[in-house]
Amino acid sequence: MACAARAEPTQAELQAMKASYERPKVVPFPKNNPFSPAKLALGQQLFYDTRLSGNGAMSCASCHNQPHAWGDGLPTGVGSKGNRLGRRSPTILNLAWAELLFWDGRADTLEDQALGPIQNPDEMNQTLPALVADLNKTPAYKKAFAAAFPGEAIAPDTIAKAIATFERTVVSGTAPFDRWIEGDESAIDASAKRGFVVFNTTGHCAACHSSWRFTDDSFQDIGMRSSDKGRGAVIEGVAQLSFAFKTPGLRNVAERAPYMHDGSIATLDDVVAHYVDGFVRRPSLSPEIHILPLTERDRADLVAFLKTLSSPDSKASGPNLSTGDKKS
Ligand code: HEC
Ligand code: HEC
Predict the structure, then answer these.
(1) Quick check: 87 and 105 in contact, CB under 8 A?
(2) Ligand 1 centroid from CA 33, angstroms
(3) Which of 29, 32, 45, 297 gives a 20 to 30 Å CA spacing to 97?
(4) In terms of Cα–Cα distance, which of 292, 293, 301 is closest to 269?
(5) Are 201 and 301 found together in one domain?
(6) Given 138, 168, 198, which residue is the final one in a domain?
(7) CATH number at residue 193
(8) Ligand with an atom nearest the CA of residue 251
(9) Is residue 44 lining ligand 1, measured as CB closer than 6 Å?
């Protein structure tokens, strides 16, 4: 074969590859919304509260649900009226480090994003005045807001800041992969170790899925068959952005099938098959996407590697509806 067995990386090369995936030590919070335990407690409460929906039946956690790695396990989301949404509910893991939000990057910050789904008629279908009134007549919420935002009102701005604070604490925990990076050779098996090398070399995955979150936050057309223009509908006139979507992080990815913005790929094996030669060729296709010379074993190794990125989350964030008075 012309492309004979690829050279194995040297120890130094492997060490350098591993070093680029080291986890950060602290979660970043913005200056205009610093962390406080009271804000976190309030934000968690709001995230799980069905008061945020017009019909009182849906919370953020309905679609961003911890047991589904903070997605919902569905191909595309389902709104409070039982309606299908156009895109899949993404995980909210590790968004403290994210740049733009949504599959098409149309929100700049978690604070900007939070009020969107509440008011969207297709999602939670609630109005902000009704929500603020409801929270204001709930004594436990009045107390929780006063503790989180002393001297400030219960208002869209403080609601958004609290939810964003909670979201920033949703961080993927230490995975077998991290233990391997830290030097425990028994943390992952030989197939996964080979898969890591494929991911970074012949598989070309790290061109976009880089750093400890396994994303560079870029928008790319990877040749999916959906007719959704993605980032191209937000920023018009840039041919390269047609069909481009945000590169998702790959932490806990094995726990949140089906995959992609449209949930059209059922398994990780099928994701790899897409990258090998299953993509649509068109002018906007990322130059980083091309036919991959991967053997059956390489593909299996890649999937074995992806499975080592799963971990329990750092926070047990189950519902805690002890705020008091339920919506009547
Ligand atoms: C009906 C299901 C549903 C509900 C309820 C819902 N979301 Fe989402 N969420 C989605 C979908 C679908 C997307 C992707 C939409 C898109 O990209 O166009 C999304 C995207 C997001 C993102 C962007 C993630 C990223 O990686 O860019 C965040 C953050 C988020 N939601 C937080 C929330 C919060 C906070 C609430 C409650 C106030 C909420 N969601 C309620 C379905 C839902
Ligand atoms: C050109 C950049 C790029 C390259 C190279 C790339 N990806 Fe992706 N990846 C993306 C984008 C963008 C998406 C989301 C596409 C969409 O939803 O339409 C994605 C989605 C995924 C998903 C689904 C995640 C989810 O939550 O839905 C997995 C798994 C994945 N890629 C793994 C890989 C593997 C393995 C490789 C190497 C064989 C690879 N990627 C190469 C950009 C890239």
Answers:
(1) no
(2) 20
(3) 45
(4) 301
(5) yes
(6) 168
(7) 1.10.760.10
(8) 2
(9) no
